[in-house]
Design brief:
alpha/beta, Rossmann fold, 35% helix
Length: 192
C-alpha cells in the first residue's frame, strides 16, 4: 500500500451506507453482508477511526419527496425512513457510541446534506465505503467522493447488490479506476 493510500485514524472515515432496518424490508437478502460490515466497523473502531453512518432520513410526511420522484414514491407511500422511526435506524451490529449519523434524501451519500462539511471539518482525506446497494449508494457516493478528491477504498464483501453480476462488474472492473477494492480481511490486515 502506498503512503498516499495508507489508512490513518485521524484522516480516515469509515462510511456505512444505507445499512438500515428499513432497507432489509425491501431487500431481505442484503442481511447476508451485515456480519462483514460489522467486522470491518468493529476493527476500524478499535483503531480509532471515525465511523459515519449515512442513510435515508425524511421529515414526517416526506415533504422532500414530490409527486414526480417515482423512485422514492414507494418510500412516501409506505411511510418509511422518517427520522427517528424504526425503519430509519441503522442495523444494531454496526452502530456504536460516538458514531456520526448523517441523513440523506436521495441515492448518493453526499446528497444535499452535511457529509462533506463533517469530513472536511475533521480533516478526513480517506474514505472506506460499504453498503447496500453496490449499484446505488456505493457507486454514487464513490463517484462524488472521487470528484471531491477523497482517496477511497470499497470493501467488496461488505457491499450488497440484488444483482450479483452488477456487483461483480462494479467491484472487479469499475470501482478500481477510482478506489482500492479490498475485502474486509484485507482492510483489517492493512490497519494492524
Amino acid at each position: 500500500m502506498t503512503e498516499q493510500n495508507r489508512f490513518e485514524p485521524g484522516k480516515t472515515a469509515v462510511l456505512t451506507l444505507d445499512i438500515q432496518k428499513g432497507i432489509f424490508g425491501f431487500v431481505p437478502s442484503a442481511e447476508a453482508m451485515v456480519p462483514n460490515a460489522a467486522k470491518a466497523v468493529g476493527a476500524a473502531r478499535k483503531k480509532g477511526f471515525r465511523v459515519i453512518h449515512v442513510g435515508l432520513g425524511f421529515e414526517p410526511g416526506h415533504p422532500e419527496i414530490g409527486q414526480l420522484q417515482s423512485k422514492f414514491s414507494i418510500v412516501k407511500k409506505n411511510g418509511v425512513f422518517v427520522k427517528g422511526s424504526e425503519s430509519a435506524q441503522f442495523h444494531p451490529s454496526i452502530l456504536g457510541e460516538g458514531d456520526t449519523i448523517i441523513h440523506k434524501q436521495r441515492v448518493g451519500g453526499f446528497s444535499d446534506n452535511a457529509l462533506e462539511m463533517v469530513l472536511r471539518a475533521n480533516g478526513v482525506t480517506h474514505l472506506v465505503l460499504m453498503g447496500i446497494s453496490t449499484s446505488g449508494i456505493v457507486l454514487s457516493t464513490l463517484r462524488r467522493a472521487y470528484d471531491l478528491d477523497f482517496t477511497c477504498a470499497v470493501l467488496e464483501d461488505a457491499c450488497f447488490d440484488p444483482d450479483e453480476e452488477v456487483h461483480r462488474v462494479l467491484t472487479k472492473k469499475v470501482f478500481a479506476a477510482q478506489a482500492q477494492v479490498l475485502t474486509v480481511a484485507q482492510f483489517e490486515e492493512s490497519i494492524r
